[in-house]
UniProtKB/TrEMBL annotation:
One of its GO terms (biological process) is proton motive force-driven ATP synthesis. It is found in: Mitochondrion inner membrane. Keywords: ATP synthesis, CF(0), Hydrogen ion transport, Ion transport, Membrane, Mitochondrion, Mitochondrion inner membrane, Transport. Subunit e, of the mitochondrial membrane ATP synthase complex (F(1)F(0) ATP synthase or Complex V) that produces ATP from ADP in the presence of a proton gradient across the membrane which is generated by electron transport complexes of the respiratory chain. ATP synthase complex consist of a soluble F(1) head domain - the catalytic core - and a membrane F(1) domain - the membrane proton channel. These two domains are linked by a central stalk rotating inside the F(1) region and a stationary peripheral stalk. F-type ATPases have 2 components, CF(1) - the catalytic core - and CF(0) - the membrane proton channel. CF(1) and CF(0) have multiple subunits. GO terms for cellular component: mitochondrial inner membrane; proton-transporting ATP synthase complex. It holds the Pfam family ATP-synt_E. This is ATP synthase F(0) complex subunit e, mitochondrial.
């Protein structure tokens, strides 16, 4: 005849406590990882938007500069109106 060994109730309770502790730890850790991933996603999205804004600013500055930084002095006696009109035409 085989003998059935009795398991102590302290051992049974400690098994259930360990299982409950592991489940609780897993849930809390999962929530922490989820929150960290969401924060990283938001920060990455914000950084991407900043880079897009900077690129748009650069393109806008290039478009509006039109390569000519010539200044005209209207009070100069040798003022060339034709040159000034051509400059205005090239802008628009």
């Amino acid at each position: 005849m085989s003998q059935v060994r009795q398991v102590s109730s302290l051992f049974k309770i400690s098994r259930w406590v360990a299982l409950g502790g592991g489940l609780t730890y897993g849930y809390v850790h999962s929530c922490t990882l989820r929150n960290d991933a969401e924060t990283k996603r938001i920060n990455d999205k914000y950084a991407h938007q900043l880079t897009l804004i900077e690129e748009a600013k650069k393109k806008f500055a290039e478009k509006n500069s039109s390569g000519s930084t010539e200044s005209f002095n209207f009070e100069d006696p040798n003022f060339d109106a034709d040159k000034w009109f051509k400059h205005i035409e090239s802008k628009y």
